[in-house]
Each structure stands twice: as C-alpha cells, then as structure tokens.
C-alpha cells in the first residue's frame, strides 16, 4: 500500500492492470510548468528529487519574471484593442464618452464569458464538476489563489483528451491577464 501511495505522489496513476505517467506526460508537465510560473501552486504535484527541486527553483527564478512580462504584454494588447475599438466608434458615430464606456463594458462582458462563465461548462463535462464548482475553480485559478481543492485532469476514473491541459494552460495565461486588468480597474475606482 505504501508503494502505491508513493507512486501516486510521484505522478504515476493506476488504470486497471496498467499504469500511466498521467501527470508527468507532456501536457501534464506543461500544465505543471504553467502553474509554477504563474505562482498558482495547486499543491497536487511537485518535484520529488533533489535535482528536480533545484531545476524547479531555477526554472521559477527565470520563469516567474518572464511570465509577468508576458502577462503585462498580453494585458496591454487587450487594452490597446479596447482603446482602438473605442476610437473607431468615436470616429464613426461621433460619440465622445459613450464609445469608451461601451467598449470597456464589452471587454468586461467578453472577458466574463471567456474566462469565468463559459469554461465551467467545459469543466462540468470533462471533470464532472457542477457549474458552481467550475466558476469557483476558474476564479481561484485565475486569481492565483490556487487552493488545490479542485485541479483539472486529476480524476483517475476519467479519460482526458490530449489537448485539454494545454488549452487550459493557455486559458490561464490569457485569463490572468484579463483578470489583472479588471483588478487594476477596480483599484482605480476605489482610489
């Protein structure tokens, strides 16, 4: 029994009479990398060897700052897109303040749909979670709280497509950039 527990902690999952590297295959490793550099840290998977831990430290030392630069750039591109659309609306319809407000509202609603309201439908299908659990997971992940009570792709009774963790990893990156803009907007309102 101790051997099975140790194997599970090492990322090996039992599937009937076969075993799978499950969490350390390509998509699982990619997802681990994203959760490390975004500082989400679910706590469900970690390096178990001294070399792996040292590599993780070096990877995080360079990966976290690079990720912050990437998230900032993604956020700035999103903001530039909203500002460009607002300027076009002002030119076409001769709206001054209405265009900016309309575009900010559209960006907020689009982000809510793409990052908080639609992904729980995918999580419900692939993970078997309720819609509310999916919303909870979405916010806890994108805000980098990462409690680890819900983590995608961890149910040994389910089969996950190869693209699943990769798509969720990209969703995390873009969703974090969007949520950072929303939080910055809230800070501006509060100040």
From TrEMBL:
<keyword id="KW-0406">Ion transport</keyword>
<keyword id="KW-1133">Transmembrane helix</keyword>
<feature type="transmembrane region" description="Helical">
    <location>
        <begin position="50"/>
        <end position="70"/>
    </location>
</feature>
<dbReference type="GO" id="GO:0015271">
    <property type="term" value="F:outward rectifier potassium channel activity"/>
</dbReference>
<dbReference type="InterPro" id="IPR003280">
    <property type="entry name" value="2pore_dom_K_chnl"/>
</dbReference>
<keyword id="KW-0813">Transport</keyword>
<feature type="domain" description="Potassium channel">
    <location>
        <begin position="20"/>
        <end position="78"/>
    </location>
</feature>
<dbReference type="Pfam" id="PF07885">
    <property type="entry name" value="Ion_trans_2"/>
</dbReference>
<keyword id="KW-0630">Potassium</keyword>
<keyword id="KW-0812">Transmembrane</keyword>
<dbReference type="GO" id="GO:0022841">
    <property type="term" value="F:potassium ion leak channel activity"/>
</dbReference>
<dbReference type="GO" id="GO:0005886">
    <property type="term" value="C:plasma membrane"/>
</dbReference>
<keyword id="KW-0407">Ion channel</keyword>
<feature type="transmembrane region" description="Helical">
    <location>
        <begin position="135"/>
        <end position="153"/>
    </location>
</feature>
<keyword id="KW-0472">Membrane</keyword>
<feature type="transmembrane region" description="Helical">
    <location>
        <begin position="168"/>
        <end position="190"/>
    </location>
</feature>
<dbReference type="InterPro" id="IPR013099">
    <property type="entry name" value="K_chnl_dom"/>
</dbReference>
<dbReference type="GO" id="GO:0030322">
    <property type="term" value="P:stabilization of membrane potential"/>
</dbReference>
<feature type="domain" description="Potassium channel">
    <location>
        <begin position="112"/>
        <end position="190"/>
    </location>
</feature>
<comment type="similarity">
    <text>Belongs to the two pore domain potassium channel (TC 1.A.1.8) family.</text>
</comment>
<protein>
    <submittedName>
        <fullName>KCNKH protein</fullName>
    </submittedName>
</protein>
<feature type="transmembrane region" description="Helical">
    <location>
        <begin position="101"/>
        <end position="123"/>
    </location>
</feature>
């Amino acid at each position: 029994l101790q051997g099975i527990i140790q194997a599970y902690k090492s990322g090996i999952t039992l599937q009937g009479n076969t075993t799978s590297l499950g969490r350390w295959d390509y998509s699982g490793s990619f997802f681990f990398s994203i959760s490390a550099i975004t500082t989400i840290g679910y706590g469900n998977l970690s390096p178990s060897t001294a070399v792996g831990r040292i590599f993780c430290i070096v990877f995080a030392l360079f990966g976290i700052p690079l990720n912050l630069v990437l998230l900032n750039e993604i956020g700035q591109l999103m903001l530039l897109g909203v500002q460009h659309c607002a300027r076009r609306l002002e030119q076409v319809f001769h709206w001054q303040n209405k265009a900016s407000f309309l575009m900010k509202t559209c960006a907020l609603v689009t982000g809510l749909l793409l990052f908080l309201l639609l992904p729980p439908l995918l999580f419900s299908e692939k993970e078997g979670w309720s819609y509310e659990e999916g919303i909870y997971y979405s916010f806890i992940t994108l805000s980098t709280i990462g409690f680890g009570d819900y983590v995608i792709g961890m149910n040994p009774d389910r089969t996950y497509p190869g693209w699943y963790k990769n798509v969720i990893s990209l969703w995390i990156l873009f969703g974090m950039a969007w949520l950072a803009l929303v939080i910055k907007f809230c800070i501006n309102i509060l100040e």
